[in-house]
Write a structure and sequence with these properties.
The protein is of the alpha/beta class. The chain folds into 2 domains: about 5-190 and about 225-255, Rossmann fold, CATH 3.40.50.720; about 195-225 and about 260-305 and about 330-350, UDP-galactose 4-epimerase, domain 1 (Alpha-Beta Complex), CATH 3.90.25. Helices cover about 40% and strands about 15% of the residues. The chain is built from 11 helices and 15 strands. Pfam families: GDP_Man_Dehyd (PF16363). This is GDP-mannose 4,6-dehydratase.
């Protein structure tokens, strides 16, 4: 009998990659999706169409991280061997506007699942993965950031995730639940949500290239991130839960790049070289050959408090989990731009009838 996994946030970027990975490994996968007035299962629909995946192996259930009784019932009904808690209001800037909701879903939501495991007497059966984040490190204390680096979150999102991190550690220590944190640095893919900076850039590059968008409005060009590929990171999540002992791990590439570099590389993919002009709010990115303005800094995208630099040290994951990222920065940018070049074309054909 294969294992049973329950994934919250299955309709998100990581949920879709993780569900595919676990199905490939022979798991039965139960996913929790939210009721929405518009379509929200686009990323996992392909899994239903895969002839290898029977409908009995992949099941979606309605649920929400702020609804305890629903979560308890779903854990009871599915009796999972592994729970991957990926659901969250995951946008840092949005968390400044929806701070209480973010605290509820991203912080207390973690507690609700851990309590479900405890109350249902599943502590010896069910392993728990918490989607913790490099946003916990926030204001730079040391680089590279590792498991022992002090936390200093810089947003309601980071603060909510801090609670999620520690309640996971606490339930491990207090009740002996096999509960682990993956402290994941930014990871992207063609399935990344369209308002995160990488996808926003690659979509804009594709749309500018196809002539359906004028320019890209952007926030802080000098923020630096350790960007990896989601496909590699979900493999790390799975490895974390296969360990005999629960623990906390950083997953990162060990390289950092600025938003500015990401933009330059993405435009280079369509043969455009960007020259920068001005500084701060007035800064512009110009096509070095034609002089056309393609990028403009817009203070609407500045954050009240910013995380300036993230650079992870994945040494523990290398050593204990045998996990290494495979897809590098350049290949990531290339894959995302190429995917958006075809997405934008398809959208255009659709809108032209
Ligand atoms: P996404 O934003 O793509 O996906 C989030 C998922 O959570 C979606 O399925 C969303 O549903 C669901 N969700 C949101 N709120 C609720 C709620 N109240 N109840 C139930 N489901 C909810 O995020 P990612 O896939 O990128 O990230 C997965 C997890 O990993 C998140 O917890 C994120 O905070 C964390 N993380 C992500 C990193 C990254 O770089 N991607 C790095 C470190 C941590 P819907 O589709 O309906 O919106
Ligand atoms: P982040 O990702 O905040 O690191 O959180 P995001 O892509 O939103 O921002 C990265 C950096 O780019 C700067 N930036 C912009 N960001 C957005 N979204 N839009 C812009 O126009 C823009 N211009 C500049 C930001 O200021 C920031 O410095 C992601 C999420 O997936 C979290 O859920 C996860 O926990 C962390 O990564 C690790």
């Amino acid at each position: 009998m294969g294992k049973v996994a329950l994934i919250t946030g299955v309709t998100g970027q990581d949920g879709a990659y993780l569900a595919a990975l676990l199905l490939q490994k022979g798991y039965t996968v139960h996913g929790i999706k939210r009721r929405s007035s518009s379509f929200n299962t686009g990323r996992v629909d392909a899994l239903y169409e895969d002839p290898q995946v029977s409908s009995a192996k992949f099941r979606l259930h309605y649920g929400d991280m702020i609804d305890s009784t629903n979560l308890i019932r779903l854990v009871q009904e599915t009796q999972p061997d592994e729970i991957y808690n990926l659901a969250a209001q995951s946008h840092v800037q949005v968390s400044f506007e929806t701070a209480e909701y973010t605290g509820n879903a991203d912080g207390l939501g973690v507690l609700r699942l851990l309590e479900a495991i405890r109350l249902l007497g599943l502590k010896d059966k069910t392993r728990f993965y918490q989607a913790s984040t490099s946003e916990l490190f926030g204001k730079v204390q040391e680089t590279p950031q590792r498991e022992t680096t002090p936390f200093y979150p810089r947003s309601p999102y980071g603060a909510a995730k801090l609670y999620g991190y520690w309640i996971t550690v606490n339930y491990r220590e207090a009740y002996g639940i096999h509960a682990s944190n993956g402290i994941l640095f930014n990871h992207e893919s063609p399935m990344r949500g369209e308002t995160f900076v990488t996808r926003k850039i690659t979509r804009a590059v594709a749309a500018i290239h196809h002539g359906t968008q004028e320019k890209l409005f952007i926030g802080n060009l000098d923020a630096k991130r350790d960007w990896g590929h989601a496909r590699d990171y979900v493999e790390g999540m799975w490895r974390i839960l296969q360990q005999e002992k629960p623990d906390d791990y950083v997953l990162a590439t060990g390289e950092t790049h600025s938003v500015r570099e990401f933009i330059e590389l993405a435009f280079a993919e369509v043969g455009v070289s960007i020259a920068w002009d001005g500084a701060g709010v007035g800064e512009r990115g110009i096509d070095a050959n034609t002089g056309r303005e393609l990028v403009r800094v817009d203070p609407r995208y500045f954050r009240p408090t910013e995380v300036d630099l993230l650079l992870g040290d994945p040494a523990k994951a290398h050593k204990v989990l045998g996990w290494h990222h495979r897809i590098g920065f350049k290949d990531l940018v290339k894959e995302m731009v190429q995917a958006d070049l075809s997405h934008v074309l398809k959208e255009e054909h659709r809108s032209n009838g």
